[in-house]
Structures are given as C-alpha cells and as structure tokens.
Amino acid sequence: MSDALKVREIGNSLGVVLPSSTLKDLNVEKGDELFAIQTPDGVQLTPYNPEFVEAMEDAREFMRTHRNAFRELA
C-alpha cells in the first residue's frame, strides 16, 4: 500500500482524502472513526481505539486475578 496523499485545505483546517482502496483495507466506511497512533516508525491509522484495547486488557487481567471470587458470585 503506497498511495501518495495530497494535503488539502478543508474549511479552516488541513486534511487528506483517503482512497477507497485504503478505506477498504482499514475496513471503515462513512461515519466511522480513525485513530492516529504515534509509533517509532511514524503515524499509524487504525479504526481500533487504543484506550479501549488497554482497558479491556486491564479488565481481563482483573478477572483472571479474581476468578475465584467471580465463580463464587456466579
């Protein structure tokens, strides 16, 4: 995937238009959100909210740690 994107003026802001092939690769459509994540290699666009992923990992760890209590409650 190597599309050159031109930065354009959109209202009072600047933006880029993503080609339909890129949108298909990201599995997004009109109205979806994209998150720009800073990585050592640059910026990564993803439809997945990194804060949600982190919260779910914390929840899984909590449930794993306290699984006996959850079994008792069930």
Fold blueprint:
Layout lengths: L7 E3 L2 E3 L4 H7 L8 E5 L2 E5 L3 H16 L1 H7 L1
Antiparallel strand pairs: 1-2, 3-4
Average pLDDT, all residues: 88
What is the number of helical segments per DSSP (H or I, 4+ residues)?
3
Low-confidence stretches: none
Annotation, overall tally of beta strands: 4
**What is the strand content?**
15-25%
Largest sheet: 2 strands, antiparallel
Distance between the termini: 49 Å
| Strand order within the widest beta sheet | 1-2
Helix content: 40-55%
Shape estimate:
elongated
**Secondary-structure element order, N to C:** EEHEEHH
Radius of gyration from CA coordinates: 19 Å
What number of domains? 1
Q: What structural class results from the helix and strand content?
A: alpha+beta
